[in-house]
Amino acid sequence: MSEIHKAKGFEKIVEPIRLTPQSKITFQCYPGVPCFKLCCSDLYLPLTPYDILRLRDFLKLTTDEFLLLYTEPFILPKSGLPIARLKMRDDEEKTCPFLGEGGCTVYEVRPLACRYYPLGFGLFRNRDERRNEEFYYLVKEGFCQGLESGEVMTVEEYRKSQGIPGLEEPVLEWAEIIMKKESLGPIEVPEKSLELFFMVSTNPERFRSFVFETRFLEIFEVDEKTLEEIKKDDLKLLQFGFKWLKTVLFGENLVKKRKESPSIKKAKPF
């Protein structure tokens, strides 16, 4: 800790400035930076559905094993929706479970939130233009000296350097669901709806069983090509799951119901 600037502390400041993809930032992080690894402790780090797939496969675990060992459920404060977040070690610093002596041991498949740091990301609905708009902001932690050095780059250049676009695209519909629920305000969410959202968001193996081993296909029309894809491809299954969630939670009719379907206990739309 002696190498850290004495004037610095562990306070966290979110600059109330909306950044665009063309906004410029200065940042670098590598083992030679005095504060290296200090940002890898006591985190409230949400995992996207794609993060879970990539980490699970990298660690050669089943989804259930990964969720049990490395995650805990967390309720997003604005939307009230349940997701999985990374579970910190039970040590004094509450360090990330993947932090090693040399840094991140899962760096190749590190979560999207880690790749964004020190940026934050959000979506909002432009109702006048009927489209979603992305925005970014800067998170300044007192100990971080990476913000004081390195090359100047745009937000989009930084995103590309961290491999973000390719990892973000598969979960944009998932983020839209969360954003849409946030826009509805503090309404009561049926327990069944929360369970469905959490299942699709965290556990493709269980969602696949739900599709193929329950009365799901008696209720919803799914073409043969899609069925073949989601039987073996977890990423395709995620994409299907997000569309299905939009159908049952918001009535968007992206997965069509059969005209004659058995009576079931329905999930009430938000």
Give a structural overview.
By secondary structure, the protein is α+β, with helices and mostly antiparallel strands. Helix content is 37%, strand content 16%. It has 2 domains: 12-176, no CATH class; 188-250, no CATH class. It has helices at residues 49-58, 63-70, 112-116, 155-161, 164-168, 172-183, 191-202, 204-213, 216-219, 224-232, 234-250; strands at residues 12-14, 24-26, 71-75, 82-86, 99-100, 103-104, 119-126, 131-141, 152-154. The strands form 4 sheets. The chain has a 3-stranded antiparallel beta sheet. Strands 2-9 form a two-stranded antiparallel ribbon. A hairpin with a 4-residue loop joins strand 7 (119-126) and strand 8 (131-141). Helix 7 runs antiparallel to helix 11. The protein starts with 11 loop residues before the first strand and ends in a 20-residue tail after the last helix. The model is unreliable at 1-10 (pLDDT under 50).
In terms of DSSP E residues, the strand content is 15-25%
The ordered string of helix (H) and strand (E) elements is: EEHHEEEEHEEEHHHHHHHH
What general form does the structure show?
globular
Structural class: alpha+beta
Helix content: 25-40%
Q: What is the number of helical segments per DSSP (H or I, 4+ residues)? A: 11
Q: Going across the major beta sheet, what is the strand order?
A: 1-8-7
- Radius of gyration from the alpha-carbon trace, in angstroms: 20 Å
Number of domains: 2
The total of beta strands comes to: 9
Return residue spans where pLDDT drops below 50 for at least 5 consecutive residues. 1-10
Largest β sheet strand count, sense and barrel closure: 3 strands, antiparallel
Distance between the termini: 49 Å
Instruction: Compute the average pLDDT.
Output: 88
